[in-house]
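Bumping with the actual sequence this time:
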Amino acid sequence: MAYAKTLFVGRVATALLATLAFAGCSSGRPVAGGTAGQGAAGGGSSAGSGASAANPTGEGTGCTMDGATRSCCTTGTQTCSGTVEFLTWGACLDAKGVKVVCGGGTIPGGCGVGEFGPSCTKLADGGVPHYCGNGEFPPSCVPWTGDGGIPHYCGTGEFPPSCIPKSGDAGVPPTCRPGELGLTCVPPPGNWPDGGRPPLPSLCTDPAINNEPEILQASSPAVGQTVSKNGQIKLWVTDERAPFIAPGEQVDATTGAVTKPGDRTAKAPDGYLYEPALYIAPATAENGGTPHFPQYIKGEYDNLQAVTAGKPVYQALQSAPIDPPPAGASAALKYNAEDIWDVSALGLAPGTYIAEFVIHDGDHDRGVGCVTIVVTP
């Protein structure tokens, strides 16, 4: 009888354990139409059950509906997830999936709304920077995503990063002028190491040597224009006397080609050459650079060979007619000449250069002209 009583008590205990185990599982997913306690299907309830001062979001506390959501910390959302037997509320996350800490702006060191690192803990507590408004740009705000906070497009003289460049609008920075460097302007074609263009050679603005710059009427290419590496550089000169060239130089009267170079080392009283010369900066005349002499001389010229009673006299020899000068230039004085250089003879690779023309007139003055030219392939 004692044995039977013991067997009965054992069976009751076993049944009770099974009932408790089943009850533990039943706290998981409810049947359709049932309730799940806090955070029922569809979410929307605020964090409350399981929350405490130490754990204001109730993270890690039990929940009953897998996938249910609830709001937390004003701007965050929690999701119920886990195994069937052990469903718990997850971390409080913002819309970007970043963990939110309740009371953001009141927590020392934590970012509040409108605050951002490094002065506070970046995005750790819901302190999401405001979206950029017109004239505002990262990192002081969040780039726009359809909220109208679009930085303005660049206007004339405005450049990134203070504005957005836009092809075809007025926000195109001007081309760099001498002495200007990028990023305040757009470099001309070429490879200047500073992104802009170097200042003009000093001889161009030296009135002691460049005392008659007006004799230089025009050049081709003009400032900033291009010329092929197989093209020509031309300079038109006008004066009251035929411009000097090297003593004894011979020029074909039909084509203007120099057939016999003269004494191209001969210098005028000002210390510079009689022969028309082109220099490429920084190897300019005042720096002792290499002079490049023209392959053609057209119009009138004086090769310093006329002598009367043992003294040189002015003369005007005639070469081939000059080419029409560019629009805006004029053969203003009696004698006019055109000096022509083959780009191929200069040894220049494609790029941007400053050319310095050093030209003697037909008596005792000189004109110096400096232009930026772009050599193309």
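The tokens above came from a reply further down the thread. Residues 202-376 form a domain with the Immunoglobulin-like fold (CATH 2.60.40.1220).
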